[in-house]
Amino acid sequence: MSDNSPLIDLENLENLHGYLGPTPPQGILPQRGERFWVDRPAQLANAVNLLKQSGVVAVDAEFTQVRSRTQGEAVSNIPRLALLQLAIENHCFVVDALRLQDLSPLVEVVGNPAIAVLLHGAGADMRVMAERGLQVVHYYDLEATCRSIFGQHESSLAAMLQRAFGYHLDKSLQRTDWTRRPLPPAMVAYAARDAEVTLALYHWLDLHHHEILQLHETAGKSDQVAHWIEPFLRGNSALSPEMAVSEAKAQGLIHNRAQVAADCRAALVKVKHPMRRNRLLRLIADLSLTQLTGELLLLLQAPTSDERAASARALGRMSIQSAIEPITALLNDPVLDVRKAAQTALRNLLTKDTRQTRPAPARALDGTRSWVVENTQSSNDDDNGWKSRLRSIIDA
């Protein structure tokens, strides 16, 4: 390792919490615009006409869990949409999803490819919206964007508003009963504020982290990757990687292992979304595609923390010894997730496997069987061992 390598305090790795890098200048939250309570079809139509004129719409949903009993008497909780807040510049509409049974006019907004929907933590909100027929086709998940920049422990809406604007977001009503009617004005204001500040956060991210924000754009277009890879990128493959490859071979889609590596290499070029690329890197590690070591080493310097962490984990799992030095540098990464991934990878690369497999029993002449139980090193010895080996590499 070169003399210019950063100093790494191995004893205090676990104590380095949070994001340690620079933060752009704080912005100023815009003044609150007009807020409208929408609980009648005519009001919803007017809101849609105004929302359609904007290129971006921040959306937030408030829902409750409703207990449902099936025919088999099993009880499950089903999310029930109570409010839907949609914010654009100077306007915010709070839609009463309980009184308005028909939300289909909003399809012209959330289902419009020309309009980018802004969500902070898209998963739950998009699922509960889909239950009401509102499929979002073009969106940014700002929580995932912030996670790519600052790490998962710094990506909540409250944490990001504090970082971006020095603003304390009140979350005291987060678990309140959103089905009560009429809603007190304080609850309506609380709901509207989440959508309004999501819009403001989008503009701050676009100003200071435009490139990473664009990587998180989802516009309904799938990457042109090998057919057998796509389920893994969606995160819903019913097969293990080995079984998926075997099935693809049986279908004539794959002819040999070299093609498996070639398909994954091509996917690395085409897939840009950090979450999908993260899943691709996991697939590469699962299949032990060491032919892609060069590509993974380059990703240790990727702009998103997701890719840096995922590539470090993959290289560690594949026991790529040439990755020790560049992964060691990631122990000083500004993002906690990357530092933890580097630490795990280095343990894999530098620690001898002290786990003992159970020996076969020895059979005596009288037919009895016995085992020899060997001592194993403690986890503390194991932890000290990899750190000692890493010190020797750093000091070399």
Give keywords.
396 residues; alpha/beta; Nucleotidyltransferase, domain 5; Leucine-rich Repeat Variant; 2 domains; seven-stranded mixed beta sheet; two-stranded antiparallel sheet; 16 helices; globular; 3'-5'_exonuclease_dom; RNaseH_sf; nucleic acid binding
CATH C-level of the largest domain:
Alpha Beta
Q: Rg, please?
A: 26 Å
- Average predicted confidence as pLDDT: 87
CATH superfamily heading of the largest domain: Ribonuclease H-like superfamily/Ribonuclease H
Structural class comes to alpha/beta
What is the chain-wise order of helices and strands?
A: EHEEEHEHEHHHHEHHHHHHHHEEH
Strand content: 5-15%
Amino- and carboxy-terminal Cα gap: 6 Å
Molecular structure report:
This protein has 16 helices and nine strands. By secondary structure, the protein is α/β, with parallel strands linked by helices. It folds into two domains: 25-218, Nucleotidyltransferase, domain 5; 222-350, Leucine-rich Repeat Variant, CATH 1.25.10.10. The strands form two sheets. Strands 1-4-3-2-5-6-7 form a seven-stranded mixed sheet, sandwiched between helices. Helix 5 (157-165) packs across helix 6 (185-208), helix 10 (257-270) runs antiparallel to helix 11 (274-286) and helix 12 (293-299) runs antiparallel to helix 13.
